[in-house]
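Exercise 7. Predict the joint structure of the components listed below.
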Amino acid sequence: MRTSLLAASVALAFAALSNAGTIAAAPRETRIPAAAIAEAAQLRETALASDLGYRITQSLTTEVGARMAGSEADARAVAWARAKFQELGFDKVWVEPVTFPKWQRRSESAQVLGPNAQALTLTALGGSPGGTVEGEVVRFADLASLEAAAAGSLAGKIAYIDTTMERARDGSGYGPGSRVRSRGPSAAIRAGASAYLMRSAGTDSHRNPHTGITRFDDGLVPVPSAALSAPDAEQLTRLLKLGPQHVRVALDCGWDGTATSHNVIGEITGSGAARSRKEVVLIGGHLDSWDLGTGAIDDGAGVGLTMAAAALIGQMPKAPARTIRVVAFANEEQGLYGGKAYALQHGKDVTRHQLAAESDFGAGRIYAYSSSAPPHAQAADRQIAEALAPLGIAYAPGTGGPGPDISPFAAQGLAWARLAQDGTDYFDLHHTPDDTFDKIDPQALAQNVAAYAVFAYLAASAEGDFGSAAKPVTPPAE
Amino acid sequence: MRTSLLAASVALAFAALSNAGTIAAAPRETRIPAAAIAEAAQLRETALASDLGYRITQSLTTEVGARMAGSEADARAVAWARAKFQELGFDKVWVEPVTFPKWQRRSESAQVLGPNAQALTLTALGGSPGGTVEGEVVRFADLASLEAAAAGSLAGKIAYIDTTMERARDGSGYGPGSRVRSRGPSAAIRAGASAYLMRSAGTDSHRNPHTGITRFDDGLVPVPSAALSAPDAEQLTRLLKLGPQHVRVALDCGWDGTATSHNVIGEITGSGAARSRKEVVLIGGHLDSWDLGTGAIDDGAGVGLTMAAAALIGQMPKAPARTIRVVAFANEEQGLYGGKAYALQHGKDVTRHQLAAESDFGAGRIYAYSSSAPPHAQAADRQIAEALAPLGIAYAPGTGGPGPDISPFAAQGLAWARLAQDGTDYFDLHHTPDDTFDKIDPQALAQNVAAYAVFAYLAASAEGDFGSAAKPVTPPAE
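Solution:
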């Protein structure tokens, strides 16, 4: 999962459209037939009693394991997804290529040198160059402090940002946390530093560092950049209170050409007339993971639960009018490459996308529902919320934004929904070696499957639309 | 901490002596003067309000970090302990050499090969030889199953024991758990296996494997032996349900000559007459740690809290009659070398050792007190228990045994006490990279310091003995 400024901007843009009522001719109000509501209630109970989502997630994380974009395992994950869609009885299964720069991690280590010599546990940030650097560590309490450092003031030194990320159900601590990761390296280079360290953007206290993509501003020469586990960051901070500390950081990693992976797509064909069958409700997650764990909560669960939700709809006596499309997106972690490729490939069909929701925030229970529904679809949106309420899900209109992989398409006018997962513990595991299958609660996952199944079934059964329309939104200035 | 058959045997031997009443002439009953009880109550409150034990533990684990026996950091730990005793105002400080075989860990990795290729996180068991082995994994549900395997039946294969250790306040799950570690490798070799894997002897679910010493029975050729983290063990077990799995285990580690470290000893001199000043109450912990973490709960806390308890006694207006001796034992982890050396060096002085207690079970609150007190000392023992009761400590006569490093001396007749720590979470961290200072609760540690201070002060103030006497106990047959 990657927080996107784009997503927040899209949400604001939709809110502005809705509030201002700028849509010239009011469309007919969208409604969901009573028969579909009744079917969804049954589907909900069926999904709650099913372990299908859990089994699919187990299959991916066990049989493939870690699957970093562009790796051999990533290719196996694509083959796995095709085969799994087919095994689950999806009507159509295909792949779409996604090409991106390939980054590799080979080894990484760090040592405090001198009288307090000891190893530090860290992990390279995605996109970091390799290199071995020795230097005195200069600690900064936060990103702003490093950004305020004078140019050249850290020449020959290692910049270290020691910010603790806040725990929150909605993951709101990750915005500031991930900015330390994305902007810290460039700030360090501007100040002249020869390497960059940060306390992991995470909420745990275990010896497992959190990786994640970083980037370097144009014109800067990248330096080795890594995240310390929380205990190691605290150790380094204690050591710095004793006096100056010299550290050796040795990273063997870096960019190496390009790779091509694939968005893998499966469909349960709609039962409506030809026109409605060509319309889709899109759900999904991302197929790639970081290399350290087996990508269970990020995002094996998202793939597993959306595959299961659609498969359970496929097992109903009659499919909903519209098609349910599940997308297992390629390379989310390193820059939303799969989401961008999908938007590029399907941009002309935005109005055929009834509504879209991505699951990419773990496997915790869903506690809130919201969408970008414009006024004419808000009654139908409320009908969906009412069908989700027995699952302990509150209606929270006006909150959230699209999932990461659908945000590029949402920027082009795609209507989105958000089934907000409880992320209280998500950043204990996110992007660490500890993101493994044993961390998933099967009951919570079944609740997710039930919610996505109900959501997708009702959106696909609605009479009328949820506002998808080709409306270029000006890309936000960053 | 290392469970010792010896310790259990000593406890039984003492119980037998007590029950049978085989001591010929009944000694005078030991009693603790009322004035000492009153002083101890004040000492208890002072210790509870002090963060001294926490600061000492922080100093060791931060400034030295991991300190595996025989390493460069181990030597720094010895220097640290000498300096710390002096800084804390101990009256006498000295070291006693301890020599042992030196084991080193350089690198370790494992991969599942073939269609489910992925990395497994493991750590070599202490004492394992290095080597790279590829083979099919054969899973056993427990040690008995592997021990029952026919000789040669695992030729060319990797034996894997998949036993889950039980969580318990008193650590009782570690007996079976550590036997899988100590006996599994020899059982694997007898069955012809070329390597040995086990699920870590631990109670956590994090990606941190648990190391610990193993041994190989005489006449066997050692094979690479390692422990998987709990998530990796579960992963391997799931993979084996899919079909045969080949794994490559690559360990670079092994024995390399001998090393000499030191027991470091500090004393707060008693205030009694010459004879009583020469008598000591011994408390302590072990100075060495495994190399993966910084040895905070195992056993930085034991060193820190016993140093602090004695230092607080040293700050009282008047010392107790007997001397308080704190021993920071060398190389507990690889075979109680420091404890054995101490017993050898001080064996002739067993009757001068009034009572001894080692802290080596983490930093959790102490919940029970017991000792080896014979009948004539049981009233005094109860007086100690009553002074500990306000700390939430129950009197539990007849339970437990001596700490690991005092067990060799206890086998020669040393009277011991046990201040039982709550070990519910101990085996989440024990012998893992995650054994770091941030895991210690300062309030719980202060309670430990208070308990050890009260215990040592009262034992040192008693009129009469607690049963230490030169009584050779037949070494238990194993």
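Discussion. Chain B touches chain A at residues 58, 62-66, 72-73, 76, 112, 115-119, 121, 205-208, 230-231, 234-235, 238-239, 242, 293-294, 432-434, 436-439 (CB under 8 Å).
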